[in-house]
Amino acid sequence: MMQIHIPTPLRPYSGKQPVVDVAAHTVAEALTALITQFPDLRKHLYTEQGKLRAFVNVYLNDEDVRYIDQKENAPVKDSDSISIIPSIAGGLPTTSAPSPATALTPEEMSRYSRHLILPEVGEAGQLKLKAARVLCIGAGGLGAPLTMYLAAAGVGTLGIVDFDVVEASNLHRQVIHGTSDVGRPKLDSAEDSLKAINPNVKIVKFETRLTSENAMQIFKDFDIIADGTDNFPTRYLVNDACVLSDKPNVYASIFRFEGQASVFGAAGGPCYRCLYPEPPPPGLVPSCAEGGVLGILPGLLGIVQATEVIKLILGEGEPLVGRLLLVDTLAMRFRELKLHKNPECPSCGAQPTVTSLIDYEQFCGLPSKSTPPAEMLNGIPQMQVEDLKRRMDAAEDLFLLDVREPYEFAIAQLGGHLIPLNDLPQRVRELDASREIIVHCKMGGRSQIAAEFLAQNGFKRVHNLAGGITAWSEKVDPNVPKY
Ligand SMILES: [Zn+2]
C-alpha cells in the first residue's frame, strides 16, 4: 500500500483523513483507487471530461508528475507517497488569476530580502504576493494592521472599501490614521500611510458603503476578501458575496477583550452562515461603539487576518479553514474550535437558498438605509432627538431615563435619571408609571431593551430615543461630548 496525502481543503471529501492508503502500480491507478474509495473527491480533482483539473497538482514524492517521465503513468512503489496540491489551497481561483509578475526589481529584492531567504516564500512566493489582489472591507481597527502588514509584505494590489472619516475616538486602535488625519476620509489617510510603507503597492479605493448592489462588482477584481467590518449586515453580505463569487473570506471580529478569526468560503470549508445561519436580533449583541474595545485587540486580530491572507497567497501552512480561533486577551488564551461545513447551509450548502444578494439590513432586523426611520420597533414608539429637543424646550412633562453605565454618564449626559440597564429590574420602583418616560442610552440599543422591559411591566407611556445621546450630539448639540 502507498500513501496519498490529502490537502486540508479536500479532507471533507476523504472522510477527514489526511492520509489515505491505496494499492496501485502507477500514479493514475492510485488516483483512480482514491476516487473509487471517496467518490466525492472526483469532481474536485477531475473535469467532466475526466482530466485532472487545471488547479490540481499531483506530486510523486517531491516531484510534480507533469515533470517526470511517463507523467501520470509513472510507476509507483509502496514506499512512495503522492501529494495532491490544489492551487485552491493557495486561495487564488485560477479563473480570475492575474497575470503573474515575472521578476522582482533590485529595489524589491532588497526590500523583501528577509522573505526571499525563507524557503517557504523565496522569489516565487514574493512574486505570488506581488501578483495578489486583496480586498479589505473597512479601514478601521482590523483594516489598519491588516492593510499595513499586507502592504509591507508586498501584496501587489490592495483594495479598500470604506466611507467613513477619521474621528478622534478611532485613534486608540486605528493606527493607520494619525492625529492630524481627524476629519479626513479614512481612505485618503490610509492610502498615505500605506504608500509611505511601500510605494510599490497599488491601492484601489472604493469610497462607498458595501451594498448588495455593488459587492459583486467590487469583489470581481480581487482574489481574497478580508472582512474587517463591525456590523452584522455587512458581515453576512461579505460572506454571501464570497460564497457566490467563490473567493475566500478571511474573517475576524472583536468585542471588548475578545476576538475570533477564521477563513470562510475556501474550497471545501465552511462559511460564516454554516456557523451562524442567522444574525442575532438587533440590540442583543452590542457593537464596539457601545460595548467598547481594547485598542490593541484589533491589532492582534488584524495581524492574524494578514497572516492568513499571506498563507493563502503563498499556499503555505495550514489555513484557518474549518477552525475558529478564539482569542481572550485578558486571560491571554488562544483556543480553537472545529467548524463543520453545514450541508444544509443556506449559503454554501448542497441546496443553497441564498442564490443572490439580499437586503441585509432587513435580514438583520434593522431598518433599511433607504427607508425613513421607524416610528415603532417591537411595539415601542421611537422618538427622534429633534422631537425630544422641541418638547424639552417647550417644558413638557417628560421623564428622561438614562440606562447607560455610570462611567458613560460621567463623560456626557442629558440630565436624565441614571439606572443602568442591568439594574433596571431591581430599581424599577423608582419610576412613576403614570409619567411619560423617554429612555436613552448611547446609540439606542440598550434603551430599546429597557423600554421593552418597562412596557412588559405595565408602563404604558414609554418611548425609546432613537440613536441615543450620540444622535443628540450629532443633530442637536455638538457640545455634548461624543465618545
Ligand atoms: Zn455555509
Written account of the structure:
It is a single chain. The chain is of the alpha/beta class and 483 residues long. It has 3 domains: 2-88, Ubiquitin-like (UB roll); 94-363, NAD(P)-binding Rossmann-like Domain (Rossmann fold); 376-475, Oxidized Rhodanese, domain 1 (3-Layer(aba) Sandwich), CATH 3.40.250. Helices cover 30% and strands 18% of the residues. It is built from 18 helices and 19 strands. It has helices spanning 27-37, 42-45, 106-111, 113-116, 122-131, 143-153, 186-197, 215-219, 232-245, 272-275, 288-291, 297-314, 360-363, 385-393, 406-411, 424-427, 445-456, 468-475, and strands spanning 2-5, 19-22, 56-60, 63-64, 81-86, 133-137, 157-161, 202-206, 224-227, 249-255, 258-264, 323-328, 333-338, 376-377, 380-383, 399-402, 417-418, 437-440, 462-465. The protein has an 8-stranded mixed sheet, sandwiched between helices. It has a 6-stranded mixed sheet with strand order 14-15-19-18-16-17. Strands 2-1-5-3-4 form a 5-stranded mixed sheet, with helices on one face. Strand 12 (323-328) and strand 13 (333-338) form a beta hairpin. Helix 6 (143-153) runs parallel beside helix 7 (186-197) and helix 6 packs parallel to helix 12 (297-314). The longest helix is centred in the middle third of the chain and has 18 residues, at 297-314. It is elongated. It starts with a strand and ends in an 8-residue tail after the last helix. Residues 87-99 have low confidence and may be disordered. It binds zinc ion. The site of zinc ion has 8 residues, from helix 10.
